[in-house]
Amino acid sequence: MKKRLLVLLTVLWPLWASAQVLRFATWDGSENLDIQRRIAAAFEQRHPGVRVQVEAYGAGFNQKLSAAFGARNPPDVMMMWNFPLYHRVLEPLDAYQAREPAFEASDLVPGLLRFASVDGRLYGVPAGFTSQVIYYNKDMFDRAGLAYPKADWRWEDLRVLAQKLSRPAAKVYGYGLDVAPDPYDFQGYLWSAGARMLAGDGQRLRGELDSAASQAMFNMLLGLLDQGLAATLGVGDGKNQRQLFVADRVAMLMDGAAFRLELAQDGKRYGVAPLPSFQGRPAHSVVSVSSLAIARDSKQKELAWQFIRFYSSAEAVRLRQGDLPVLLSVARELALQDDPQVAPFYAMALSMRDEVPAFLLNPRWTRASGVVRDAIQEVFLKKGDVAAILSKAAAKAERKLQ
């Protein structure tokens, strides 16, 4: 048996060793990593003699990628979101796209290309996206005899529903509020109030993060906590939102598309609604976009582009399940925009058209975002006056951008 295995390895090893290796770095893990490998295997079948080496950087993605660029040994292709920070070490893709398009612009969900562009140049190809929606627990609504949220609802409607669903003594709450959120995701709350974290000039937080509109949103959310209508998610033990939602201890919460796959695994009955409006203003959601980029130092850029072209094809887009199809043709084919559990994501993606995330306004935003994150947590953990906390944080974060 050992001799046969040795002979087989002796035959196959030269073929494997001589393969042209394309390195592809991803932040995905678990089921999504398996999908990446399936896409890579499908590409290899179409390109004999090519092996795609999928490098799973996981939670340390940014640090490992930065180290690879610093050592002048980056992967050929990588998942990317922060193009303002990385674009100088990435290959511009305009000429490739003009010569041999990876996508038809009219087939992309509107607004996604700006996430992969810097100063009018294209550095990435959108691969997946998600917006934020409200998930509601159908079991809890049904037991309370309550109608499900409608598309044109308001935060006041959510508060009234939360009152009817909450039993604080039993640790059952109408809403689950992440009190230690990623500042990127929290921007949707502020946009819906007519506020911003960062001004359009990319420099000023004072008068924006601490504006009256921003304070109004913070105070509304604080009211849900003070009235015992919202659970605090993201801090302490036993605060996993998936567990609380599945255990019927939280009736509504805000999240992206990946959460629906987790609930499907749990067999949980749930519904999805667009974000509520605030004080008569239209609701706005952030959109998170994953794209593929090519390292400027790659020695096989043509092959890397062919991989991106395949990754952007309808065949590969159909395989990605952790986020939503960026191709409208695939969404139509799968009837996703008619699916009540998916359609709100596409509707909320369009809500971001007039808003610009802070990281796109200033490549140094990551220096300031930690200050903002800490301030949000301070407010919700009631460690001081809202106006004072936000004012102090705005001034400190501005200095980080200098």
Automatic annotation (TrEMBL):
GO cellular component terms given for this protein: ATP-binding cassette (ABC) transporter complex, substrate-binding subunit-containing
CDD domains linked: PBP2_TMBP_like (cd13585)
Keyword Transport: yes
Domain of life: Bacteria
Database matches in Gene3D superfamilies: Periplasmic binding protein-like II
Matches recorded under SUPFAM superfamilies: Periplasmic binding protein-like II
Keywords: Signal, Transport
GO terms for MF: maltose binding
Keyword Transport: yes
GO biological process: maltodextrin transmembrane transport; maltose transport
Pfam annotation, one family: SBP_bac_1
InterPro entries for the chain: SBP (IPR006059)
Signal peptide: 1-19
Family: Belongs to the bacterial solute-binding protein 1 family.
Protein name: Sugar ABC transporter substrate-binding protein
